[in-house]
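User: I've been going back and forth on whether these two constructs are worth ordering. Before I decide, could you fold them both?

Assistant: Sure. I'll take them in the order you sent them. The first construct and its structure tokens:
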Amino acid sequence: MTKLLLDEHPLQVLPGLAKKIGLNEAIFLQQIHYWNEINKKANNNYRDGYHWTFNSGKDFLEQFPFWSKKTIQRTITRLEKLKLLVSGNYNKLKIDRTKWYRIDYKVLSALESSPFTQIGSTNESKWVEHLASLGLPLPEINSEISSEINKKHKGTENDSVRVAFSFQDYIKKFKVNEVDIEVIEHYLSLYRDCMNEEHPNLKAEQWGYVVDRLYYVTNPDYDIDFDLDESAVMDMMEKHFQTEYENCDYNILHFMSDGVRVKRMYEVAY
């Protein structure tokens, strides 16, 4: 008997859900539903009127061994953007940042009856607007997570997300790993060589966007995601500065647009 056919608990997903939000998102959401149903039957993890499930990053990698850590985080982030997944923190220890998850079934019901046949990067905002038009309250995160978000992208009352500053100032305020710093600094060095000046300052949320999306690209034509390593990204950056655009100031935010990065990715890959 082969060990690749149903000798272990299979992951299940409905094609209709995968068509609407993507295969990775549908698989993950189905698993959250499965775990929360188990918790509901056992009356476990009941907080603020809902049953939740929680896993560490290591646990998720064991549950989804065919995905990378970045793919799992990206899938969670997108489900949160679509308002289908709600996150919280109910850990007893303040230093424990393991996130808890539940599904917003009202939003899921709206998805089922909505006119959207597929929700991709090009119409995510229209989907959120659709939810607002239905009068669905957007889920609130509990105070622990809210405090963490404020700490990450606000700092003090006078140092809000509206203040723009350099990348060096950003990494003094917010945690960025050394490899990510090296890759972004590579872009900034290329910018200095090309433009003969320092890169313009950005807001905290903009630098955060760059850091969070550094290693993956979405093809907007097919809604396909690609995971990249740091060497591929740096090759794309160099190709970017070798490319002539109309009315381009070579701001890193221009490079981060999916349309630009997809083209540069295919150029360095072949």
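The second construct, handled the same way:
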Amino acid sequence: MRLGVLFSGGKDSVFACYRAMQTDEVAVLITLVSGNEDSYMFHTPNISRAGLLAQAMRLPLLSWPTRGVEEEELADLRDALEEASRRWKLDGVVTGAIESVYQASRVQRICRDLDLWCFNPLWQVHQGDYLRLLLSAGFRVIVTGVFAYPLDRSWLGAEITEERIRLLEDLQRRYRINPAGEGGELETLVIDGPTFYQSVEIRHASTTYHNYRGHYLIEEAALVDRPGTRDVDHAYQCDIDARPGGSA
């Protein structure tokens, strides 16, 4: 099957893409760029870096704007999926949904209307086991946003490690947070993994933090060759602006 992946560059969309690649063909990554950092539907921290990750994965990226107005953004999602389906002849769409019925049900409804299969390979996964699976598969993941007590500034920019996973599981027991951030507690960015031909090197970043809400803003990043891999074509083009009137 030819699939499009709803893609933010965060761990869930990247890992869902990895799972889809094991059985099917991933034809395109689809990123909704929201003008509302508190979007109900879409990941927003460092969303502008999705194109860099798509380049690292050597996959085309369809970038689609939305104002991020609740419920109205679903019309933008439908337009993006319809355009991706038309251009890449898709059979289905992959999401990184784990527990969010709000998100999963809305994507499923749109896919049904467009006659597309909706594939949710992470649905109801045990979150602690899932985080360890990310590490064992070779993914490197950093925290780019925290939005809940008791996550403090020290998490911003930190890489997910076994020690961090144990801390998250302890916070789950004590404060009932979702260790994988499915309740909106944290956001992430993948900087390397088995689907990457190059790694993401963060060269400059800044943090903002107040009252258990913080962002790790990546201001400069580049792709670097992974040890033991051949040089890649640095002129590879992955970004496609599909806004009305945009270039294809």
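Notes on the second construct follow. Residues 128 and 151 are 17 Å apart (CA to CA). Helices lie at 11-21, 50-57, 72-88, 101-113, 127-137, 162-175.
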